[in-house]
Write a structure and sequence with these properties.
110 residues; single chain; 2 helices; 0% strand
Length: 110
Amino acid sequence: MAVQLIPLIKTLAPYLTTIATSAIPAFTAKSEAAKSETVVAQQITELQQAVTRNAEALHTLAEQLQKVLNSAEEASETAKRQIAGYKALVLGSGLISLLSLSIALYSVWL
C-alpha cells in the first residue's frame, strides 16, 4: 500500500508546501498580544467568580462555626450548673453522713 502512495506524494509534494503555508495561519492561534488580552480578561473573570464562591463558602462556614461555638457555650453553662448541683449534693450527703456517724458514735458511747 505504501508503494501506491509514493507516486501520489511525489505528485503533490510541490503543492503541499503552498497549501500548508497558506492554510497554517488560518488554523493557528491569534497573535500573542490579541490572545493574551482575551485570555487575561477571561482569567480575571474566572478568578473573580472563584473569589466570590470562596467568600460565600467562608461566610457559610463562619455561620456554622458561630452556631457550633454558641452550642458549646450553652453546653458549658449547663455543665457548670450541673457541677454546682452535684457539689451541693456531695456536700449535703457528706454532712448527713457526718451527722449520722456522730449520732452512731454517741449512741455507742452511751
